[in-house]
Amino acid sequence: MKGLLLLLGCALGAFAETKLLKNATVIDGTGSAAKPGTSILVVDGHITQIGHNLKAPKDAEVIDLTGKFVIPGLIASHGHLGNTKGFIQDPKNFTRENAEAQLKNYASYGITTMVSMGSDQSPVWAIRTEQRAGRPSMARVITAGRGFTGKNGYPTSAMGMKGVPYEIETVEQAQKAVDEQAALKVDLIKIWMDDHLGKEKKISPELAKAIIAQAHKHGLKVAAHIFYREDARALMEGGLDMIVHSVRDKPVDDSFIALMKKTGARQGAATLAREISMFYYAEPRPFLDDPFFTRGVGGPNGEIVTRMKSAAYQQGQKIDPDHKLYPDFLETAKKNLKKLYDAGVPVGMGSDSGPPVRFPGYFEHWEMELMQEAGLKPAQIIVCATRNNAQSYGWDKQIGTLEKGKWADLVVLGKDPSADVKNMRAIEMTMVAGNVAYKAR
Q1: 157 by DSSP, 3-state: which?
Q2: Domain definitions of the chain by residue range
Q3: What Rg do the C-alpha atoms of the chain give, in angstroms?
Q4: Could you report the per-residue pLDDT of 291-308, keeping only the tens digit for each?
Q5: Which residue, 115, 189, 117, 197, is CA-closest to 154?
Q6: CB–CB of 326/277 below 8 Å?
Q7: H/E element holding 140?
Q8: 110: number of Cβ within 10 Å
Q9: Could you tell me if 209 and 238 are in contact, meaning their C-beta atoms sit under 8 angstroms apart?
């Protein structure tokens, strides 16, 4: 019997898929210094060895990465999957085909995991189940399922959002709805708490706290869309786990920071790219001719680029009566991000990509560049976008850093990202679970 088991083990080992990524400079996402001349051995999608002078096992595929840089796959901590095609957001757009096309596009930008924040439709469950049962070759999805707001509350007035979040009026409704989402095994719960600068209804703190309490009974973390400092404070006092936008109305003060540290609440995403997109498109911009942008939106002559270049489109952006307020909101968001980071609050990276003109993949790179403008160093941003985000969503035992035993979710770069975060654009290859999800031509 022992001999049979040994024979069987050898036979199975012979069919293992083995890759040796050889002689790269590895930035492992832990915050440690870059490690030149490092190799990574990947067996059946997992990292089994990482170090110097590794020998390639027999029949291994050897990929020479001399002169290249390897980082963990980027994790986008705030996005919205599947509902947008072109300029139209509608739940009807959330087909398996559209969602998977977007997950592949994320991977082409080095995003190996994305968190979809409360607007998902039924195809997400099959996609998630299959991903977690095997080895995906596109970005992984972490889902908040269906989010929560108040009756007729923000964002139900936004295009394609009516009927998407639960509209809660009572504590009993809140508890029942959380139970429904827990039964679907959502990865987290999402709350919208905003009144769109006084124009719309906002969920009450009491109902939001009831949602948080019920989620915690199921062992689920809760993330909140907030705008106002005092709303964020109230939710953290009710046990909120993370805010997924920056506070934008006022500077965060010492008592706010102390509360975050006391409760363990995280700045899960700052969504600076979302803030700049509120006013940036009102003028002609060179990014519309940037191949790094156009390759993800149908090319330089596609509908999106053509329309966004038009004078009519740009003028239309200025009609918003709050247009002049948005640059100040962005600056407040950037300052608050830096202050929280410097105070030791855990910070993640997320851009709110997915809705119209918030472009999946490209927006995450814009987000990191804005984080650098806010004063974070490239090495710090890498940790925010990898290890910190994995920790926020309970995935740090599987992804987020390049360490033995974890999935080989990684990005190969042609330039040093620790010198300038813009070098993250030099993507040569993305791997998810050891599978090549993108390779530059």
Answers
A1: coil
A2: 74-400
A3: 22
A4: 999 999 999 999 999 999
A5: 197
A6: no
A7: strand 140-143
A8: 30
A9: yes
The residue behind tokens 């995991």 is 113
pLDDT digits (tens, 9 = 90+) for 210-261: 999 999 999 999 999 999 999 999 999 999 999 999 999 999 999 999 999 9
Helix ranges restricted to H, 170-280:
171-183, 205-217, 229-237, 254-263, 272-277
Q: How far is CA 193 from CA 81, 155, 209, 211, 316, in A?
A: 20, 9, 11, 12, 27
Cis peptide before 155 (omega within 30 of 0): yes
What is d(CA 168, CA 164) in angstroms, rounded to the nearest whole number? 12
**Residue-wise DSSP of 161-180:** -TTSSEEE-SHHHHHHHHHH
Cα gap 194→191, rounded to integer Å: 10
The superfamily in CATH containing domain 74-400 is Metal-dependent hydrolases (3.20.20.140)
- Please answer whether residues 351 and 368 qualify as being in contact, where contact means their C-beta atoms are separated by less than 8 angstroms: no
CB-based contact 310:281 (threshold 8 Å) = no
Q: Under DSSP, is residue 198 helix (H, G, I), strand (E, B) or coil? A: coil
- Contact between 76 and 350 under an 8 Å Cβ cutoff? The reply is yes
